[in-house]
Amino acid sequence: MESVTLPRIVPYEELLGTTNNESTMKKDTAMGATESEMKDQSQENAIIPRGLPKSGKFWKSNRKKASSMVKTRGLRSSWEKKEKLRQDLKRVKEKSRALKQEKIDEKEAKKERRRENLRRQEENRKKSEVVQVIKNPNKMKRMKKKQLRMVEKRDTTTIKK
């Protein structure tokens, strides 16, 4: 049979993170422990044995807080490089803005041309109409319903003959 070593009982202060505080130092010196023994003991205290994780995944290790991790600053670039990048980015944004504005202007010009063409078309249609002026209103009274539907009223002042 294999022998199982049980972890030693850890005092409450040590669990809180105060491994070598004054109270434990006083206890150890009062008991007659030497400095080398206290160092060995503090190393043992630093590694607090953990129980099995609740999830049951025994291979997972304890994670450190992100704030306690050593962070690298990354590559540092000079002020000239940063300024050049800024200028390039500004130039690219300006160019894209100009292209977008150009597309918008093209669309607006097409719409305006279409409106102008429709207006001109309507004017030409009105000019080319063949009209017959009805001077006698009694003719209108004698017309049948179907014939009245065909009649359209126009402003005769604008028509040139």
Description:
The structure is a single chain. With 161 residues, the chain is mainly alpha-helical. It folds into two domains: 1-56, no CATH class; 79-148. The protein contains six helices and no strands. It has helices at residues 12-15, 22-31, 35-46, 79-127, 137-142, 145-150.
Draw up the topology in text.
Blueprint: H1 12-15, H2 22-31, H3 35-46, H4 79-127, H5 137-142, H6 145-150
Quaternary status: single chain
Biggest beta sheet summary: none
- What is the distance, rounded to the nearest whole angstrom, between the alpha carbons of the first and last residues? 126 Å
Average pLDDT: 79
Task: Note the main attributes of this structure.
161 residues, mainly alpha, 2 domains, 54% helix
